[in-house]
Write a structure and sequence with these properties.
The protein is of the alpha/beta class and 282 residues long. The protein has one domain (8-254): Rossmann fold (3-Layer(aba) Sandwich), CATH 3.40.50. 33% of the residues lie in helices and 16% in strands. The chain is globular and about 65 Å long.
Amino acid sequence: MSDMVLKVADYKADLKPIWCAGCGDYGVITPFYQALAEIQAQPKDTVIVSGIGCSGRFPYFCNTYGFHGVHGRAVPTAAGVKIARPDLLVIAVGGDGDGLGIGGGHLPHVARKNVDLTYILIDNSIYGLTKGQSSPTSPLGMKSKTAPYAYVEDPVNPLLMLLAYGASFVARGYSGKPKELKEMFVAALKHKGFSVLHIFSPCVSMNREVTAKTMSEIVKPLPADWDKSNRLRGMEIALDTATFWTGVVYQERRETMDERLAAMEQRVGRYKDLHELFAHYK
C-alpha cells in the first residue's frame, strides 16, 4: 500500500460518521481526511487516540489504527504511543470537556516536553454526548442542563493557555471554514513537535446559544502577513474575545521529546557498563 497514491476515500473507515445531522464535526473530519491524503500518511503507520465525548468517535471513522481511551486521557496516551514508537504519525482527538476539563492538567506537561504529536481539540462549549452540561468553555451567563438560570463561571481561554504552556505549534479554526482547516491540518501534521488545533465546532442539539450563526459573526482569518514567530502577539489576539481569529497563530522549531531521548540513548551507548555511566554524572 505504501507504493500507491492514496486518495481521500482510502482514509475513510467502513463505519460512517454518526454525529447529529448538522453537527460541526462533519466539517472537521472531511478536511482531516483531505489533509491525510495530501501528506500521503500511511494508514498502517498512523494512530488516532481519542477520549470520551462526541469527538471520541473519531478513530472509528478513520482507516488507521485507533485507540478510544478513557475520559481526559487522550493526550497522555498519545504521548506514550509516540515515545514508544517515534516512527508513527500520532494524533490525539478530544473535546473541550475531555481536554480542558478532566484532562486539562495534562496539556502543560505534554507541551513543555514537546512530544511530536498533533492534538485536535474540538470545542463546542457544551458536554454534548452526556446531554448538555456546561463545559470549561461555556460563556458566562449561558444556560445549560447544569446551569438552568445561567452559568456563573468565567470560561477558560484555550488559545491563551496553549500559548502560555509553550506548545510549539498553535492554530485555531472553525468547522464552518473547512478549506482553511485542511491547510491547518496539513501544517500541523508536518510540524515536528507538539501541534495543537483548537477548532470550534457548533453543537446543534445541546447548545442553542453558541451556534453557527453567532460564530459566523465573529470568525475572522488572521492577516496574510501574520508573524507566526511572535508568541506575545498571539497572546494579544487570544485576549481579543470579541473576535475569533483563525489560522496558524504560533509556530517554532525546537527539540522534541523523542529527539532528546534518542540523543540520550546515544550518549548512554558510549559507556561500557553502569559504573562508568554513573561515574560520568558524579
